[in-house]
Amino acid sequence: SGGPSEGGEAKGKKSRTSRSSRAGLLFPVSRVDRQLRRGRFAERVGARAPVYLAAVLQWVTHKTMDAAVRISKKSKQQRISPSHMQAAVQNSSVLKQLLQGGVPRRRGRAVPQSQRVASPSKRKTTESKKR
Q1: Which domains does the chain have, with CATH numbers?
Q2: Is the CB of residue 73 less than 8 Å from the CB of residue 66?
């Protein structure tokens, strides 16, 4: 025992690290990847897609929990209740917009280009009718 072949195998083995720990995340990247593939949202799923999605989910959870903790401390309670979570989402404009599924509104912008392109054709049709 202890021959050269055994020592070579020990050197060749790498310690396994999860994709979550490599990305520095707490949320499970492999589980998100599995769900993306099983869900058939697309034919192909890139290697970085589950990492990004897990990071977004972790950020949303952290933001929500952080706000809920502050609300529960203000009400002098030690446990976070569903009402604290709901109040946290309602108080944060970012979370409220994200979790209600609303489309973000662009403020201060002129008419979108798709409508600009459509309006000149209407003018041409009215001019041709006048002739």
Answers
A1: 19-99 (1.10.20.10)
A2: no
